[in-house]
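1st attempt posting a full record on here, be nice pls
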Amino acid sequence: MPMRENRRMTRLLALTLCALLGACAAPRAVPTQPSPPAPVRLTASDTVAPGFEIPRVRDRMVFLARQEWSLFGSPVVQDLPDGSSRLDFAQGASPAHELQPPMLSRVLVYWYAVSTAPIVGYQGELRPWSAAFISWLAQGAGLTAEEFPRTVLHWDYIERSLQGRPGHRYAARDPLSHVPTVGDLVCNARSDGREPDFTQQIGGFADLRRGPYHCDLVVGAAPGWLEAIGGNVGDAVSMTRLPIDEAGRLRSNGKRRFVAVLEHQQR
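the predicted structure (as tokens):
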């Protein structure tokens, strides 16, 4: 065999041997990235009190209600002799309405914080949002869905209060005997157009059933009346001055028939 052919065969054998040895060699370890350290949660000890005063839940609800009321121009409901009512706005404040862009943005915040249902009705109208406002106040004050439902229906939280569900933050009381205080919700029956005589069908506190209601948050008291703020009152967040008797109980009139007081349970 010629010398050149010999050298070529030798190289071929050497390359084949190297390839076989490489295939049999143990695989090289692939370097791995070290796992990131677990995040450190900086929490105060249970034995350490905060260095600042934390307002109670009902105080936070009152603060929020007054804040939204001021954004709407601080309107106050004035009942007129003919049975109608009007809104008197704070001096220098422009009359506010739910359909004005800045006000509508607030209404959308209340509604979609507690519901995924569309706020616009089948005829292009804005759905009643008073219950969404109350539910938003409770949520904003830090109450969980177990303590207060996320809802656009007043009846949902009235029913829970009547049932005395564990964990619910309110207890239903008879307005004929209970004296409301700041932080309570005062509720009256109303007609929604489909049941014009709904209020006449309620015999009293013990007969409450599913239907259209309206509730306001009591934010202040004075001799002879309570201050209560509610949503969708005159198409705004408005304050109503509710008359009370000498004992502090609500006095119903032809315009408002109070059917329940939801007492805030402070914890």
